[in-house]
Write a structure and sequence with these properties.
- By secondary structure, the chain is mostly helical.
- Helices cover 77% and strands 0% of the residues.
- It has helices spanning 2-18, 26-46, 49-66.
- α1 runs antiparallel to α2.
Length: 73
């Protein structure tokens, strides 16, 4: 039950946080979503602040790199 509450709170805060992203580019939105998902995943996997932060960083980098414009290469 504790895990369900944690995941539910993470989803709620992510949805509320992303509701203010109307002025962001597609790449910035994907970076934010990747960081949020990575933070939740890091917390679920090992449950510490360090793991949550590391998951957010990795998720943000992945979200940023996945959404790069291919025409800029």
């Amino acid at each position: 039950m504790k895990l369900f509450k944690l995941v539910s709170a993470g989803v709620l805060f992510t949805a509320l946080g992303l509701s203010g992203c109307s002025g962001m580019t597609h790449q910035e939105k994907n970076t934010a979503v990747g960081a949020a998902v990575g933070g939740v995943a890091g917390n679920v996997l090992c449950g510490g602040v360090l793991c949550t932060g590391a998951g957010a960083v990795v998720g943000g980098v992945i979200g940023h790199e996945v959404s790069k414009d291919k025409d800029k290469k």
